[in-house]
Every structure is written in structure tokens, then in C-alpha cells.
Amino acid sequence: MSSPSCERPPTIDPVAAARWHAAAPAVSPWLHEEVARRMQERLQWLRQAPASWCHWDAVRGGLQAHALVSARYPKARCQVQESALHCARVAHQALRRPWWNPARWTAASPQFGMPADASVQMLWANMALHAASDPLALIAQWQRALGVDGCLMFSCLGPDSLRELHALHAAMGWPPAGHAFTDMHDWGDMLLQAGFADPVMDMERITLTFATPERLVQELRELGRNLHPQRFAALRGRRWHAQFHQALSERLADPAQGGRLALTFEIIYGHAFKPVLRARVDAHSTIALQDLRAMLHQGDRPPAPARR
After folding, report:
1. What is the pTM of this model?
2. Tens digit of each residue's pLDDT (9 = 90 or more) over 53-104
3. Which 3-state string (H, E, C) describes the chain?
4. Under a CB-based contact definition with an 8 Å cutoff, are residues 174 and 228 in contact?
5. Distances in whole angstroms, Cα of residue 219 to Cα of each of 20, 23, 118, 177, 255
6. Which residues contact 140 (CB under 8 A, 6 or more apart)?
7. Which of 71, 192, 74, 196 is nearest to 145 (CA)?
8. b (16+ CB within 10 A) / e for 232-255
9. Distance (Å) of CA 286 to CA 169, 279, 281
10. How far is CA 157 from CA 29, 215, 230, in A?
11. pLDDT tens track for 133-167
């Protein structure tokens, strides 16, 4: 396969993606929480509870979902990594337990910051991957944080998302409504390239309905931004916004939903495991210390937990 830089989504502007990541609202959107709730139900597929897990970008990914996963694994050590500074402050305030909280007597407070290499047994990343300008590099970060037999659980938007909005922009002759989202089969290929094994992908579609164009636009602004390099480059005027709202009212009204405006979101779920490193012996080979230890001791390890 090609190098990681060539795996960048061709319709994501990396500068715009970085600006959005640094300024995205430090809240958990309703859709993110709902997807995370459904994703945590998939944890029943794991027969062995992780002793430690990392919640990657918990604030945007879902603080209510963090409580669900923590309740499922109350004895597990938790590491919270926020890659955006403004979200890190919110995560500290929302998740750190005060000294007088009785929960501190039964479980330790989460630790904050980048997890050390091979330090966690599960990495949870909800609704983050589709906005990454270099997704293979991000997946590689997750792979390094996991120990051998560690599990990655993630979700993201799929290519069928916002199809109504894309069709509207095309019909009106406007620039693209947003960047293209990656297919789940391509995510599976990238997981394998990053060193994961046994990737399992599935998807579902969720339809959200809105009473007014204003409410629909508000929801979209909370979920993300148009990161397409060919997006409209200037500010839109009042006349265009009025035309846009009128087009939303006319083209997105769904009779099956009582005339409410409907938007489709394709949700991709994936999980994969970090296998024991199989080193290729060359004249000169470089192996990370934690991977070398795993190889030296793999004969002493108990069998890997059964997977469904």
C-alpha cells in the first residue's frame, strides 16, 4: 500500500480540519452520544474486561457514554486523552472526581494525557476518525497505545451521510456541501496496514428529523464543518442564507415524517485487535522495547481471550 501521507482523504483540507479541531464546541453532540450508546452495547462481544482503557477525545465523543463504559468496567484504570486543549480543560472539570466523592473509594479517578505505548487494553474512539486529515497516522497512534491483544473500538460517519444535503447543493449548482467520508472497507484496509488484526466492520443508518431549517443548521454546526478544499471560500450573504433555508424546507421535507426535514447519517462501527508482533529478521532490524518484551514473553502468556 501507499505511505500514510498518501492515505489522507483527498477531499479534506488539512488546515481547515486543524482549525475545526481546535475550535469545535466543547460539548458532546446528541448524535455522538447516541452512537456511543450503541457502540458500548457492542462491548458484550469482548469476553474479558480490560484492566485499563483509554477514552480518546471524550468531550466530543460523549461524556454520557464515558459514564456507561466506566460503569461496565468499574475496576479498570482509565486514561483520558484530549487532543484539543479547550476540550482537555472541560474533560478535567467533568471527569475528575473530587476528594469527597464516594466513587473515589471504589475506583480511581481517570488519568489525563497521552497514554504511554502499549499501556492500555482497550482504546475507545467515538466519531473522531471521519474528520482526521491523516487518518492512518491517527490509527497508528491508537495502535501504539494498545498492548498486545488490546482492542480498538471506534465509530465514524460513512459515505452515505448527509446525502440529502449533497444532492441539494448539486441541484442548486453550489460547491460541495462537505468532504467525502471513507467507506468501511477502506477503514478495514487501513487497520490492517497500521498493524491491527481481525478487523470487524459494520454500519447502520440513522435518520434525524428537524422542525425548521434553522434547527437543522444549528445541529450541523455542532457536528462539524465543511472541510472540502473546494468549499465556498468567502462569507455567504443574507440573501443566500434565505435561499438555502428555503431550499432545505422544499427539498428535505419528508412526507413519511410528517413534513419534517430529514437528514441521513451512515454510522460505521469497527473493532480490531493488536496482535503479537511477528518480527521480520533483516540484516539490521529496529524493534520497540515493549514489542520486544511481548515477543520474548509470549511463550509465558496465557492464551488470548476468546473473541466473538
Report:
1. 0.85
2. 999 999 999 999 999 999 999 999 999 999 999 999 999 999 986 544 555 4
3. CCCHHHHCCCCCCHHHHHHHHHHCCCCCCHHHHHHHHHHHHHHHHECCCCCEEEEECHHHHCHHHHHHHHHHCCCCEEEEECCCHHHHHHHHHHHCCCCCCCHHHHCCCCEECCCCCCCEEEEEEECCHHHCCCHHHHHHHHHHHEEEEEEEEEEEECCCCCHHHHHHHHHHCCCCCCCCCCCHHHHHHHHHHCCCEEEEEEEEEEEEEECCHHHHHHHHHHHCCCCCCCCCCCCCCHHHHHHHHHHHHHHCECHHHCCCEEEEEEEEEEEEECCCCCCCCCCCCCCCHHHHHHHHHHHHCCCCCCEC
4. no
5. 15, 16, 37, 15, 21
6. 4, 194, 195
7. 196
8. eeeeeeeeeeeebeebbeeebeee
9. 50, 9, 10
10. 14, 21, 20
11. 999 999 999 999 999 999 999 999 999 999 999 99
Q: Look up residue 10 and give its three cell numbers.
A: 483527498
Amino acid code (one letter) for 261 = L
Looking at residue 63, its amino acid is: L
